[in-house]
Design brief:
The chain is α/β, with parallel strands linked by helices. It is built from 12 helices and 13 strands. It has a 5-stranded mixed sheet with strand order 1-7-6-4-5, with helices on both faces. The protein is globular and about 65 Å long. The two termini are 17 Å apart. Bound molecules: oxa(dethia)-CoA (UT7).
Amino acid sequence: MKRSKIAGIGKYLPENVVTNNDLLKYMETNDEWIQERTGIKERRYAHRTEETTTTMAVEASIIAIERAGITPQDIDFIVFATLSPDYYFPGCGVLLQRALKMKEIGALDVRNQCSGFLYALSVADQFIRSGMYKNILVVGSEKHSFGLDFSTRGRNVSVIFGDGAGAVVLQPTEDSNKGILSTHLHSDGESAEILANYNPGTHANHWKEEKYADFDDAEIGQMFFSHSMIDKGQIYPYMDGPAVFKKAVVKFPEVILEALHAHNFQTSDLDMLIPHQANLRISQFVQQKLGLKDNQVYNNIQRYGNTTAASVPIALCEAWENGLVKEGDLICLAAFGSGFTWASALLKW
Ligand code: UT7
């Protein structure tokens, strides 16, 4: 049976290291709170004017493509996951296609936030299995630092996020001991608003609040964005952290077990779990619930914070570069986040 395998992997982290203490310049917070509640010690921020979500994706992609032993011209499809695109539209997929001078191939943008990379990987996996494409570039990249509320008002969100990118090249394999065994995707939109960036958007809730009852066409044309949205900080991400935490610690183990049980594996068979790096406490809870040993779970949130769609490929790449993911290993990737959406992928390296 034809499967897809990761033929090359790369990551990019901006040089600029921002410690918890560095954030004290902007907001009332402290190193102890951040470390105790999240495990984060520092994160990276992209260069303000010279780096974008796409430029970081380019760096990670070049490494992944080189490691796959091909060139950008061999790529026949792009799937790009991000919640912090260079433009509201078009998406980053076409910008990556342009930057790497690729052929006029298809470029698909995925907006599934923390589980974005796993959704992207799943889509790419299906295209490889069907025989449609042979070299798919799958990317997760985020420049969060440009869209966070650095005042004390936004501290529960802003201290968590960091910038970075990860990329893989997927290729077909006939080797039954290798590749992506399956992917498992889920959603529950009931809680869509508890972790969200409402504006700009077409929801018009803000305008209802403001009681703009009788606006004319010109005013309607301005509903996408307003000065008052900016003044009230309604352009930044909103998160009910404790509610997200409670759901995450249920859905993470569930979707990991779903992947393992689909192939009659037990948690003891797992060589490495690479969880989305949302919060070290969530990873530790999941580890404990599944009875996994320390050497079965990879965490790097301490150094990079939460890089959303980039976090799984960055962690997988780093684990592999450090020799912690080896040929023949059984690896589970898992993520949970805004939507809610959650997902897992089980693979043999
Ligand atoms: O990847 C996307 C998915 N996201 C997640 O999975 C995040 C899940 N949630 C979490 O990780 C945690 O809920 C947080 C880390 C976001 C927050 O931790 P928490 O233990 O749930 O804290 P909390 O929101 O209940 O806030 C506790 C206190 C509050 O003060 P009071 O009301 O008790 O006086 C906050 O105002 O901590 C305060 N606080 C802070 N203090 C210092 C919130 N943010 C900060 C901060 N520094 N940065």
